[in-house]
């Protein structure tokens, strides 16, 4: 995503040359406002792609298409002044487009596909049978940087920076690999949440039909970091060897990110307090005391040019993994520390229930003005949240563009173009292809069955 | 199943099946009315025992022993031919008792499934296979060529859960959705959406099937109960059925005692005198941070409802704290709804039941959460500090910690109760609202005895 960095405003003004002076005054201020949002929804929001995606092939002409499918999907809008309207539904792409343009929601959430049109749920409820229930929903994950506040020292709460963002990169890598290799899912969309985290949408038909119990099983499979505010040790890795998924995550992702990035960038062993925190993971107090002693020694004598965090970490590893530490728990400690500081922390409730809402891709975050763009899991190291297109930046591009030529596809020339192109080629097209295949094979199986039943 | 008052005619059903029933359909047996009730009470003892075991966080091996003992003690019969019948009859009677509300069905389903799981594990390999055939599970054993390609991983999984891997173990390859419990606890290898289930874990496959059968059956039984049985049997079975569910489940504290209505001005006093630690911790955190995350809000709010806090007072109480942090406006918009929801005033308008200990103990608090059971979810250091704050120190505190180490969380809470109130609590603590009402009773008695 960030391979081609979006030029900053200064650069663009150079391009415009002559009008430079004048444009400085007219440059659109950063941030968010409803008028910009109107233009964004008017010119840039990819309605057709969203409709194609959420129709899952049911908008075609094939006899097996379920034309009610898209219309049974719940959307909910957060309007200006925090007015929250749930159970919106749309019969067509045009209806959705009109409604979004008219209401100009600050936030659009996507819910499940229900058994009946959610906007008419009350009418169905009067029929007596409680038929209004969710029947399909993407398997979703929500990972939020504010859940990592005890292991990052650069920012806290809603803030993120390039020092802590690797925690999100780790989460994408670990979860994405397991979803594909372990669970066999193929159609996975990762999206920047616009401020401090990432969302994941697993869209395979099998994933959409999982019941709550199955969702809980997948979520628990990923659940390693446990315990509330009042428990001390949040990660416990029992057993003589690690489970294959955990072992793979550790060797392929966690270990290198911890040792090569976070250890230094977060200065995890640079102060007494932080050292104590890590020593707290070691159950044997004499070992912990010996290490602390060593570390206090190497603080005084600046022994080498090497980073103090790295030196101390190597000492810790040496101490815990050396031959004389026969006790299982001590050797496992190194892994427990790495898992505690790097392993993904999921918002479990979002993933466990079909009827949880999640913000739609391509929304604009009302606090940062940044667009919720897709992230390529294969190149997620390159994703840079600080260069994601902002609303004001996009509007400037439109202003410049309109001087040059009129076009229906504004976004193609905007810096959003790359994101929409990626959404189409890497996610939407393969998804629709397999939707079509599934539809055809289900249909021919049905035909075959009805023939058989005729010939009994 | 027919129920008769007269002496039962011995029914001869000598099919050589395993001792474990799948309870597919009610058997064509005649049952004496006395047995109808007695058998059900015996089975209920077993299910209650299982429920307590789970609440104490017993490990699988301990549960296996517990179930074996409970079954042996309660489900015996002097006539060996009658043992199987007692099992089946008691199951179907309780099915009638526990079909009547969602809450009852959920409890029964969960306990019967647990019972079945451990009884299945106690069966011989031979009869386990027979039961699998009886379920008509469509799975074939993994063929050797495929086994070779995943062998290393299968060994790794077995070792990771501390089991030795045996090369002649049979594996079944099934969609991962069939064994959600094994997937969730990472006790089975999964690859490309398929779980490789070893014979010694096959119980999960069978249990999934069993659970889904019973779950469907309970819904059907409920329909029959409301449409016909309840009315038809109103002089005979209905009173027994209704008595059975009440006598054993205890009060659920949905409706606060009429006498026990509390007002907002007393709430701090009540919190420090009579709230159990789990609620007192939430209460203190709320006062301190002016905020609680979702899980904490539900746990505390439902408790307060059970204690007798009126909805308007509850809204005022939460608003007072939250507005210090997020502002009154945001409280009204984002939080008030769920407070009213808990009181059954929003959404599907269910009047939610305050959480019992078992539910609180089995919850999984995450980052930033303060709910759950302190005896289970606090580190030793934090728990000791919390106990000191409640005035439980010294030897008493050590005794509490001792119970905690043995995972007797409810007993630890009971000991805390006894230490604070200076009296014994023979019934034990099963529900935070019970803790509260027992505490209030004792305090009032003390006040009256001082006055007189």
TrEMBL record, chain A:
InterPro entries named in the record: DNA_primase_S, DNA_primase_ssu_euk/arc
Cofactor(s) this protein cannot do without: Mg(2+); Mn(2+)
Any GO BP annotation: DNA replication, synthesis of primer
Alphabetically ordered keywords of this record: DNA replication, DNA-directed RNA polymerase, Metal-binding, Nucleotidyltransferase, Primosome, Transcription, Transferase, Zinc
A GO MF term: DNA-directed RNA polymerase activity
Family classification: Belongs to the eukaryotic-type primase small subunit family.
Entry protein name: DNA primase
Organism whose genome encodes this protein: Ananas comosus
From TrEMBL, chain B:
Gene Ontology molecular function: 4 iron, 4 sulfur cluster binding; DNA binding; metal ion binding
Binding site for [4Fe-4S] cluster: 278, 357, 373, 413
Cofactor needs: [4Fe-4S] cluster
Domain called DNA primase large subunit C-terminal: residue spans: 268-436
Keywords for this protein: 4Fe-4S, DNA replication, DNA-binding, Iron, Iron-sulfur, Metal-binding, Primosome
Any single Gene Ontology cellular-component annotation: alpha DNA polymerase:primase complex
One Pfam family per UniProt: DNA_primase_lrg
Stated name of the protein: Probable DNA primase large subunit isoform X1
Organism (species): Ananas comosus (Pineapple)
Gene that encodes it: LOC109722784
């Amino acid at each position: 995503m960030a391979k081609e960095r979006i030029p900053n405003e200064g650069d663009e003004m150079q391009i415009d040359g002559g009008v430079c002076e004048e444009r400085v005054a007219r440059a659109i201020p950063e941030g968010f406002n409803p008028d910009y949002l109107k233009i964004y929804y008017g010119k840039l929001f990819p309605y057709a792609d969203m409709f194609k995606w959420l129709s899952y092939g049911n908008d075609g002409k094939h006899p097996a298409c379920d034309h009610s499918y898209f219309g049974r999907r719940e959307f909910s809008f957060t309007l200006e002044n925090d007015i929250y309207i749930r159970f919106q539904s749309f019969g067509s792409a045009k209806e959705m487009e009109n409604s979004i343009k008219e209401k100009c929601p600050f936030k659009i959430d996507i819910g499940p596909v229900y058994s009946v049109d959610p906007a008419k749920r009350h009418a169905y409820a009067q029929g007596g049978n409680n038929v209004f229930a969710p029947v399909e929903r993407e398997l979703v994950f929500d990972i939020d940087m504010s859940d990592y506040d005890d292991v990052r020292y650069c920012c806290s709460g809603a803030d993120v920076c390039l020092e802590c963002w690797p925690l999100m990169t780790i989460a994408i890598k670990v979860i994405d690999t397991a979803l594909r290799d372990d669970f066999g899912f193929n159609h996975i969309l990762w999206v920047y949440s616009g401020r401090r985290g990432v969302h994941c949408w697993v869209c395979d038909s099998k994933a959409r039909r999982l019941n709550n119990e199955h969702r809980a099983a997948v979520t628990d499979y990923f659940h390693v970091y446990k315990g509330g505010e009042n428990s001390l040790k949040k990660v416990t890795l029992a057993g003589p060897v690690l489970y294959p998924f955990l072992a793979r995550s550790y060797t392929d992702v966690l270990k290198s990110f911890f040792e090569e990035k976070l250890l230094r960038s977060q200065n995890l062993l640079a102060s007494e307090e932080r050292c104590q925190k890590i020593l707290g993971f070691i159950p044997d107090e004499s070992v912990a005391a010996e290490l602390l002693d060593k570390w206090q020694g190497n603080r005084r004598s600046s022994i080498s040019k090497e980073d103090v965090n790295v030196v101390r970490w190597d000492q810790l590893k040496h101490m815990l993994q050396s031959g004389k530490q026969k006790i299982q728990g001590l050797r496992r400690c190194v892994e427990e520390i790495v898992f505690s500081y790097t392993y993904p922390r999921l918002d479990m409730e979002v993933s466990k229930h079909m009827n949880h809402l999640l913000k739609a891709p391509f929304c604009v975050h009302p606090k940062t003005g940044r667009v919720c763009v897709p992230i390529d899991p294969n190149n997620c190291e390159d994703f840079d949240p600080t260069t994601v297109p902002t609303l004001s930046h996009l509007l400037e591009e439109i202003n410049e563009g309109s001087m040059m030529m009129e076009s229906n596809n504004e976004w193609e020339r905007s810096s959003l173009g790359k994101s929409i192109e990626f959404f189409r080629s890497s996610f939407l097209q393969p998804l629709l292809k397999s939707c079509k295949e599934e539809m055809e094979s289900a249909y021919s199986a049905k035909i075959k069955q009805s023939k058989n039943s005729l010939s009994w | 199943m027919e129920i008769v008052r007269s002496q039962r005619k011995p029914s001869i059903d000598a099919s050589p099946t395993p001792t474990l029933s799948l309870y597919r359909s009610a058997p064509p047996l005649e049952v004496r009315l006395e047995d109808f009730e007695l058998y059900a009470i015996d089975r209920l003892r077993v299910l209650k025992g299982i429920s307590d075991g789970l609440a104490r966080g017993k490990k699988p091996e301990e549960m296996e022993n517990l179930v074996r003992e409970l079954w042996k003690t309660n489900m015996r019969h002097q006539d060996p031919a009658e043992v199987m019948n007692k099992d089946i009859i008691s199951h179907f009677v309780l099915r009638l008792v526990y079909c009547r509300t969602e809450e009852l069905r959920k409890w029964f389903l969960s306990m019967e499934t647990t019972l079945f799981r451990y009884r299945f594990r106690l069966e011989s390999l031979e009869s386990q296979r027979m039961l699998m055939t009886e379920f008509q599970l469509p799975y074939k054993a993994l063929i050797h060529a495929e086994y070779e390609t995943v062998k290393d991983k299968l060994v790794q999984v077995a070792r990771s859960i501390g089991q030795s891997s045996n090369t002649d173990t049979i594996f079944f390859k099934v969609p991962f959705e069939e064994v959600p419990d094994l997937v969730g606890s990472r006790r089975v290898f999964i690859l490309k959406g398929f779980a490789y289930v070893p014979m010694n874990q096959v119980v999960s496959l069978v249990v999934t099937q069993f659970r889904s059968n019973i779950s469907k059956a309970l819904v059907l039984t409920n329909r029959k109960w409301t449409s016909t049985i309840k009315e038809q049997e109103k002089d005979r079975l209905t009173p027994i059925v209704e008595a059975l569910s009440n006598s054993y489940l205890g009060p659920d504290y949905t409706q606060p005692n009429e006498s026990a209505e509390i007002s907002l001005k007393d709430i701090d006093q009540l919190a420090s005198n009579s709230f159990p630690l789990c609620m007192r911790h939430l209460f203190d955190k709320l006062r301190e941070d002016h905020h609680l995350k979702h899980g904490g809000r539900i746990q505390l709010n439902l408790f307060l409802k059970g204690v007798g806090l009126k909805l308007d007072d509850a809204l005022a109480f939460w608003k007072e704290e939250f507005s210090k942090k997020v502002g009154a406006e945001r409280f009204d918009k984002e939080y008030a709804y769920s407070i009213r929801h808990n009181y059954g005033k929003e959404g599907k308008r269910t009047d939610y039941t305050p959480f019992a200990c078992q539910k609180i103990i089995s919850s999984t608090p995450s980052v930033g959460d303060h709910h759950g059971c302190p005896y289970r979810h606090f580190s030793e250091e934090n728990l000791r500090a919390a106990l000191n704050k409640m005035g439980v120190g010294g030897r008493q505190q050590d005794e509490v910690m001792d119970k905690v180490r043995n995972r007797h969380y409810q007993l630890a809470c009971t000991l805390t109760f006894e230490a604070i109130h200076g009296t014994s609590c023979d019934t034990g603590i099963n529900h935070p609202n019970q803790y509260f009402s027992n505490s209030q009773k004792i305090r009032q008695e003390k006040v009256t005895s001082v006055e007189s």
